[in-house]
Prior knowledge:
- The chain is of the alpha/beta class.
- A hairpin with a 2-residue loop joins strand 10 (184-189) and strand 11 (192-196).
- Mean pLDDT is 89; it is low at 1-11 and 277-297.
- It has helices at residues 20-24, 33-44, 57-67, 97-111, 168-179, 202-213, 230-235, 247-250, 264-273; strands at residues 15-18, 48-51, 72-75, 80-83, 88-92, 115-120, 127-129, 143-144, 156-162, 184-189, 192-196, 220-224, 238-241, 255-256.
Amino acid sequence: MAAPTAYAARTAYSLIATDLDGTLLRGDDTVSDRSRAALARVAAAGARHLVVTGRPAPRVRPLLEDLGCTGLAVCGQGAQLYDIDADRLLWSVTLDRELAETALGKIEAEAGQVYAAVDQDGVDGLTLIEPGYRMPHPTLPAVRVGRREDLWGEPISKVLLRHPTLSDDELATVARSVVGSLATVTMSGPGTVELQPCGITKATGLALAAGHLGLRPEDTLAFGDMPNDIPMFDWAAYGVAMANAHPELKAVADEVTLSNEDDGIAAVLERLFGATGGTGRLVSPAQPVRVARDALR
């Protein structure tokens, strides 16, 4: 691995985009006091914090409230732009349910039986799970249905898949090989391979939110941990992967910080905005954690 690279000084970013699971959140779904303080310094410096998450709006509302977030949030892997203050979706894209069923059939023809769940569209949409599906996050509420057919009763934003024997990487590879233009395949966390509307990614939602805020890619610093964050890193000026991130994301990151359990986001924001109030400059840290991009390939 190449030696750590010193940081070049630059103007502070004005949009801080963070994933939640495995990134801002610790394993117990909480945000540390240190991370809260770092985000407070971001706000005090006049920058915006934007949550960009795979969770649908109903499953993220309590976290946004706990963090004191206002304004916008990007939810559902980019399929939803959520107005936190008004508790409404400014924009949403649904996954055609017939296409979803077709995509599932193609995946099962190649990989054998999978177990499925869906996130319904809307600010009060439910997460429905078919028999055999296990929620990767036990703390998230879900409603078990009796048959797969019951998943399709209302408009959906995405389908979540699990396989009894294949790893997430193996299942995602199979899904991408057969789904084609029926849906976008993403992998957003342990036990979380998803089908979402074709062409929709975190980058599409982030770009839309940034446009509403009058901000640009060059204004944006993004944090993430899984392959579904790759489009967001491609769009933003600078992408920071967590130490616990998937190798595919580390391979395209500009920097690798500490893990979510070790306040990796806070470590970068403290360097960027200052530990007690914002210098607006990136400086070389006493213990640098940046890794040159080529060293990760």
